[in-house]
Amino acid sequence: MSVLENWDQWKNFLGDRLNHAKQQGMDNNVVSDLAYEIGEYLAKQVDPKNEQERVLADLWSVASPEERHAIANMMVKLVQNNGTH
User: Fold this and answer.
1) What does pTM read for this prediction?
2) Which pLDDT value is given to residue 2?
3) 3-class secondary structure for the chain?
4) What span, in angstroms and rounded, lies between the C-alpha atoms of 44 and 33?
5) What domain of life does the UniProt record list for this protein's source (predicted)?
6) How far apart are CA 47 and CA 33, in angstroms?
7) Domain extents for the chain?
8) Distance (Å, rounded) from C-alpha 61 to C-alpha 17?
9) Along the 85 residues of the chain, how does pLDDT read in single tens digits?
10) Cβ–Cβ under 8 Å, residues 84 and 23
């Protein structure tokens, strides 16, 4: 099973990556920019695997670049307490 198929596993995966990036000294602006780039990649290259990802993909598809940055920032906030720490 892919990490993308289960919403909680996906959030934990992202949380682990976020925690690792912060431990390596990555600042919030860089994290935000990377989250945006990941969102762009997922929107163009990956079919949503669950209902939550479908909602995010639908929102992303109608959002302006500024709104996409806001979505990316919200995803960072959502997963910042997830993962194995």
Assistant:
1) 0.82
2) 73
3) CCHHHCHHHHHHHHHHHHHHHHHCCCCHHHHHHHHHHHHHHHHHHCCCCCHHHHHHHHHHHHCCHHHHHHHHHHHHHHHCCCCCC
4) 17
5) Bacteria
6) 22
7) 3-79
8) 25
9) 576 778 888 888 888 888 888 889 998 889 989 889 988 988 999 899 889 999 999 999 999 999 999 999 999 998 887 766 5
10) no
Count of CB atoms situated within 10 Å of the CB of 19: 17
Q: Which two tokens stand for residue 54?
A: 């479908």
pLDDT at 84: 63
- Residue reference for tokens 């079919």: 47
